[in-house]
Amino acid sequence: MKLARRRARDVTVRKNVTIPISLAEEASAKDINFSATLTEALEEKLQA
């Protein structure tokens, strides 16, 4: 429940990242959303 409340209050910010082209191409080919994936990975890492 805390995460849901925090997400409701969170304002998004734009961040630029640099990744290997091979990862970018493969992710794009599989229609992977970069922002959603980065958000999920950061949330998982912060809870570890």
3D architecture notes:
By secondary structure, the chain is mainly alpha-helical. The protein has a domain at 15-47. Helix content is 65%, strand content 0%. The protein is built from three helices and no strands. The protein has helices at residues 2-9, 21-29, 34-47. It is elongated and about 35 Å long.
List the SSEs and their pairings.
Blueprint: H1 2-9, H2 21-29, H3 34-47
How many DSSP E strands? Answer: 0
Number of helices: 3
Query: What kind of sheet is the major sheet?
Result: none
Secondary-structure content class: mainly alpha
Strand content: under 5%
Instruction: Kindly report how far apart the N and C termini lie.
Output: 18 Å
Low-pLDDT windows of residues: none
For the residues shown, what is the average pLDDT?
88
The coarse silhouette is: elongated
Percent range of helical residues = 55-70%
**C-alpha-based Rg, rounded:** 13 Å
Helices and strands, in N-to-C order? HHH
Short description:
The protein is mostly helical and 48 residues long. Helix content is 65%, strand content 0%.
Output the keywords:
mainly alpha; 48 residues; single chain
